[in-house]
Amino acid sequence: MSGLAIPGRAAGGGRTGGAGPRPLDLADIQGNILRPYGRFGFPITRHIFFNIASAAAGRDFIGLILGAVTSAERWGAIDDETVGPFVPRPLVALNIGLSYRGLAALQLPTRTLAGMPEEFIDGMAKRWSILGDIGPSAPSAWDPIWLAGQEETGRQIHILVSLNAQALQDGTPVPELDESMAMLEQAANVSAGVTRLTGHRGPNPDFQDASAIMRRMPDGTVVPTAREHFGFTDGIGDPTFVGQYEPKAEAVEVIGAGKLVPGNSRWTPLATGEFILGHPNEAQELPPTAAPWAFMRNGTFMAYRKLHQNLRRFDAYIDAQADFMQHVGGIASRDEARETLLAKMSGRWPSGIPLEMAPSYAEALALQKTWGDIPAIELKGPARTALETQRLNAYNRLITDFRYNGDIDGARCPVSAHIRRTNPRDALDPLLTTQGAPAGTSLTNRRRILRRGAPYGSSTTRDNEGEHGVIFMALCASLFNQFEFVQQQWVHYGASFNVGNDTDPLVGLRRPGAKFVIAGDTARQSAPFICANMPQFVETRGGEYFFLPSLTALRDIAQGSVDPT
After folding, report:
1. Cα torsion angle, 459, 461, 466, 467, sign
2. pLDDT for the residue numbered 21
3. What is the secondary structure of 420-484 as a DSSP string?
4. What's the CA dihedral at 118, 470, 313, 203 to 10 degrees?
């Protein structure tokens, strides 16, 4: 670190122990690729963006903070089957992303730059037509930091540094978060040519904060929840790939999150190369990479997006539609109508229980009662007993282990529901029958993304103008084939689901007369319910594409030794 202190790091540690061979070089992969940090005790996130005035300054800056970068090495007492010596869990996890303009500012070889994917070279703002960033989501309406970066060379976003922090009992970040900020500021000053960019909307223009929505417990402690501002439980069903977890943990995590084996109901992990470069993908091929091949190995791409949520508009629309649904559907209570509408739009009840497992409000309430101890067990973290861990695993299987083979017409979960569009599971299998003999499809397996991120701002004031939404980050080996495909074809267009131009009911682009159809139940001879004239609930407020290099590649960049020959 050339004399810079690294906050939140315990002395000692070393390479991870544990039984069995390791298919991945975890010490070389950045930790936010394998870990959704929020699930591992890091509820608070801070994103800081930098501009590089000269290649030498940029290399110095990366070299100064390289020792603080968090790798994917296992953490003792946190990861199953990990034995010492191990890497201790930091109080603050730090990770780095570089935009294409950042790589160019670092003066990487022309051959390396020319071999980068077209969409990454373009950058997110230029892909607005593919991503549906029009109207209030257009790049011209983004936060000042993003707008200035499009127009001024000295304001271009070159480096993203993400800090993920643990929290104190009162819900505030550990002091090491401020220490990490000071360390970054010192590194920028020493480098004499790296500038922290400002212009974020919100309480502090110098960085973008995000945090899990907190809940105060009876004893006064504050704990993170998995809810986002619309009220849904988030972060369920992230993909699982080969090498991401130890074998014991993988057997649990892969259920509902991997791929379906044709001809049976078994889930297996997706190929590593769908998410990490330099490894075989589902086509048993190595994803395309720029020269030299080793430079991109163990790295991945990230789509970073700031998504604003119009809370008052969402609440007003849901309330009005719930009143109508209660009236025409003969539903007993307004609460039931509202919860049912939300579940039909999402594909899950706000609690996280999927419609495929609990099609009715009564069934959802019964399951919530049966599993009423789960929230308390989740909060215990590593302090859970073996029996509590087994029960939590059983609950996670309940909410993830399902498919759509018995619900082709969407009577339980609408074919256009959010989770069915963004992860169709077996719904797009061309041989799908009610007998359920086929499984998933390679089309779905090749479109998966790792979802990272957290809510930002407060939803205490349910308005449209305030700073509240989600910092959404999608990680994948191909931005074009994975993130952009899902965004364009599945979120903003409905041909794959035979719903024409109907878009995702929660995050989709709204055109005049936009609608969402809730199918009727032929068994009960109930009519469809149509949510008409849907307004825009979510708007883009900024974003960029970043490359997350391996630690080896970061070291090569810092030393100026990237050689494409």
Report:
1. negative
2. 37
3. HHH--TTTT-TT--TT--S---HHHHTT--EEEEEEEE--SS--SSSSEEEEEEEEES-IIIIII
4. -110
